[in-house]
Every structure is written in structure tokens, then in C-alpha cells.
Amino acid sequence: MIQHAELASRLQAVLGSGPLTRLERLSSGASRETWRLECDGRQLILQRLRRGAVTRLDLEVRVLDVAAGAGVPTPRVVFDGSRSDALERPFVIVETIAGESIARKILRDNDFVVARRRLPQQIAEAAARIHAAPTAELAALPDADQVESLRNLLDGLGDPHPVFEIALRWLELHRPAPRANVLVHGDLRLGNLLVTPSGLSGVLDWELSHLGSPVEDLAWMCVRAWRFGSGLPVAGLATREQMLAHYAAAGGAVISLEELRWWEVLGTLKWGLICIMQSQTHLRGLVNSHELAILGRRVCENEWDILQLLSPVPA
Amino acid sequence: MLEIVQSVQQWWSQAATQPASSRRTFDIQVAVNALDIVQRELRDFTRQRSAHRSRLASLGHGDDRSLANAIRGGAHDDDLEALAAVLRESIHDKVAVANPRWLQSDPLPNDPAVPTTG
Lengths: 315, 118
Description:
- The complex is a heterodimer of chains A (315) and B (118).
- With 315 residues, chain A is an alpha+beta fold.
- Chain A has 11 helices and 9 strands.
- Chain A has 2 domains: 4-95, Phosphorylase Kinase, domain 1, CATH 3.30.200.20; 103-310, Aminoglycoside 3'-phosphotransferase, Chain: A, domain 2, CATH 3.90.1200.10.
- Helix content of chain A is 43%, strand content 16%.
- Chain B is mainly α.
- Chain B is 67% helix and 0% strand.
- The interface between A and B is large, with 46 and 51 residues.
């Protein structure tokens, strides 16, 4: 394992810079570690895969390039180490973008009053640009059928979940007309967007990007977990109609509420399955098993949301 | 349920020897929340379980596994939405135990920056 000082000197060599004036570990996700560093007055972010991670970092770097070329605000790649062994494992160094990513602050703090007014249109524009990006160089991205992927995921979890089965079956029986595959971000929501007081400044976390329907990204923002307690369905910021209108005005496809609903059912199911997986995982710094038990009990929130989407009770 | 009570009990006996910290305050909130869930579950568990069984029986199934398999096999394709309405009662019970606030609609933000009409 590389020690802290050793990592700093290897980074200096990689960057061809002066000595690092800062090197600080920010977080440690399931598949990668994130560091903040500073050299020659520049603020940079290092992401390095964990041992045994299966992520194709080289593909992700290519996605960042393609998205930037399409006009999406993304972190500029300073050094592509996805095929390098200079830090023992694949890595990438990007420039820092200023902005807040904590959803509850963006939705509630007075600093973001102006940003909240602009964000629905800005996010819809960013989505339209992502979905218009050329995919010729991205053919190696996953393009699996989402319903089939979720069915396989559910089968791996063991216990029977009748409501999730209803969702899967309903999705199978009501598939919308197929659309040409586009670049899909895969985790577009507050939390993965950077926001300054004047609005959207960056789109982060491209780890789950793949090829698929553009509606998937728009519907994922409507999953109730990403509203953070706000009654507005799209990321807690806008109505569905507002978002679809902004998206079409920005050159995106014209999408019906019905097609959006199909993908919302799929997104809610996906989030429910992720919650089950998290509650089964004794990692991620969850010390007490009652925390895990609580997470597991809250899976029924997703079941409730699915039933509400399928046959809403009149208010 | 038992696993929650055991875990909370174990945690308290360890935490009692630790100095106060913000992490500990957070852990106490988590533990209190867990005991809230257990109380709600104890109060209503018997009724909920038998109500869910009657609903399964009304659909012609003895347990969740049998219902799940039937749905997967397409046996309920013609009445999926009616099925959803029946299961809603059981899921309502579960959410009422796990997080009753989830059953209410979230409030619209009281924020002049955010337009609330379509």
C-alpha cells in the first residue's frame, strides 16, 4: 500500500508540478476513493479505484470528454490515469468545480433562492445535452435492458417481494415504444449536481452512465427519495410538466407523462432494490445492526410509492 | 424485531462507557428511532399479520412466495391493478410501522423562488 507521503510524491511526478500543498482524503465509496489535492495553486480532485473494483474508469473518462464536448458542465480531466499504474490502481485527476452538492441545502438555504428558480431549466438543458452527445466512441458502455437487469437483481436478493413483482410485470406489459439509445447519465439528481447561488455549475458522478432511453434520467429525478421532503416531484424543484417543457424547449425529445410514469415506476423499483442490497451489506460504516434493520424496514416506502404510481388513491 | 431490541441493548451498554460526542448523539437518535419502530410494530403486529394473511387468501395464495411466483408467471396479468389495490392495505400497515410520515404527501415548498403550478 502507498503511504500518504509516497502518494503525494507520486502525484507530483504524475502532474509534473511543484510539491503538493494539500492532500486530503474526502470519502471512500464502494468502488473508489476520492482525494482533494492542491498544487501550484490549483485545486484538484483525485479519484482512485479500490482494489478489485470492476468499474471501467477508461470508459468513464471518455464519457466525461464526450459530455464536455456536448456542452455539459463537467469537471475537466487534468490527468487520465485509467490505464496507468503510477498510483498502483487506475485513477483520474480532474479540476474542482465550485458549488454545493448537498440537496437539503440547495432546496432550503436562502443562498440558493435564485438558483432554485433557474435550476429546473438548467437541469433540463444539461439533460438534453447529455442525451444529444455523440455515442460513436461509447459503444463499449453497458446497454442492457433495464427491466431484465432489475429482474436479475431481484432474483439475487432471495426473499419474495410481491409488490416488486407487480412492478416488474406491469413494466413488461406496458413497455413504451422503443427509442434510439442515447448516452444516459444514470444517476442524475441533486447530490450529483453542483450548484452555486447563481445555478447549476457541474454534473458529477458518471460512474453509472450507460446507453439507453433519455426518459430514464428524467424519471430518476422524480423518485421520491430525491425530492428530499419537498412536494415538487422533479428533484423537489419543479412539476413534471415544467421539466418536460424545459427539456423539449432545450432540444430534447417530446415525452408524454405516461412514458415518464413508466420510467418512474422503474426508477422507484430500482431504488427499492438498492435499499434492500444496502440493508444486506454489513459494510459502509454502518456500525449497529439496528441501523441495517431500519434500512430494511424502510423498503416498504418504495413499495408504497410504486403502488401510488400504479393506482393512485384520489386525494 | 428481536434483532433490533438486542442490537439497541448491546449498543447502549457499550455507549454508556464512552464520552459524549456528536457521533454519539446521532447514534442515540438512531437507537431511539429503532425503538419507536419496535413499539409501533408490537402494538399492531398480530392484527397486521392476520390481515395480510386474509388478503393473500382472498387472492388464492398461502404466502408471499406463492403470490410472487404467480405474478411472475403471468397469472395475475389481467388484474394487476386490482391486486395492487389489495396489497396497498398491507403496505400501508408496514409503512405505518416503519415511517408513518411517508404516508402523507410532502408539503409544497413555501418559497417564492419555486413556481408551484404547471
